[in-house]
Design goal:
Layout lengths: L9 E4 H4 L3 H10 L4 E5 L5 H14 L4 E5 L2 H7 L3 E5 L3 H5 L7 E6 L2 H9 L4 E4 L9
Parallel strand pairs: 1-2, 2-3, 3-4, 4-5, 5-6
């Protein structure tokens, strides 16, 4: 298990933020945010990876996690990855131990399972209806 870099994480949903995402993440980092999770479920992958690369290169002290794809995490050099519930076990099998890995959970049982599978942190999510769905 890897230690998360901060108890506070900023979630940057590139689908919602659009072209402003990079500037907003930079501003959040300048304001003290040390860790950001980039989420882009609907954005074209090429655009999402371009934004991730720009954020990582312009904010080298910002710890960056990507939502959902180990190959994309490796490609951009992000330090962390985040999965939907139930997807972590297959990643942890051969993953580098220094990669911070998290999981979105919706039930108490999923939280326990995520930690058993090697999660470094979990989100208990969807307490309210999300704007993005």
């Amino acid at each position: 298990m890897a230690k998360p870099p901060s108890p506070l994480i900023a979630l940057a949903d590139l689908d919602l933020l659009g072209p402003k995402a990079v500037g907003l993440v930079k501003a959040a980092h300048e304001g003290g945010i040390e860790w950001v999770l980039l989420r882009a479920k609907k954005s074209p992958r090429k655009e999402a990876l371009k934004a991730a690369l720009e954020i990582i290169s312009s904010c080298p002290r910002l710890f960056t996690s990507l939502h959902g794809s180990e190959s994309e995490r490796e490609k951009v050099g992000a330090g962390g990855i985040h999965f939907p519930s139930g997807r972590l076990a297959s990643f942890r099998g051969g993953a580098p131990k220094n990669v911070v890995a998290g999981v979105s959970c919706h039930l108490n049982e999923e939280i326990l399972g995520a930690f058993e599978d090697g999660a470094d942190y979990v989100f208990l999510s969807q307490l309210f209806a999300p704007l993005s769905k």
